[in-house]
Design a protein that fits this description.
This protein is mainly β and 78 residues long. Helices cover 0% and strands 59% of the residues. The protein has no helices and five strands. The protein has a five-stranded antiparallel beta sheet, with no helix packed on it.
Length: 78
């Protein structure tokens, strides 16, 4: 996979990712992923709207809730 990332020069937030990905037919397809509607979550800005384009298909996602490291214990990493 070859990827290019695009960031907002003022905020540093990732706006877009373009990648060339292999599909089952063995050909490379371009996938473009957009992030937006950034909101603070535990001191970090997280995208709450994501759109993924591949060919003629676009999938739009809306994030309802973000939990960071909730319920993890040190034993989970052993």
């Amino acid at each position: 996979v070859t990827s290019s990332y695009y960031f907002d020069t003022e905020t540093g937030l990732k706006l877009r990712r373009e990648s060339q990905e292999q599909v089952q037919q063995g050909t490379a397809m371009q996938r473009i992923t957009h992030g937006g509607n950034y909101q603070p979550t535990d001191g970090e800005m997280m995208p709450h709207a994501i759109a993924s384009e591949m060919g003629a298909q676009t999938i739009r996602m809306k994030v309802r809730d973000v939990k960071i490291n909730t319920g993890l214990t040190p034993e989970a990493f052993k």
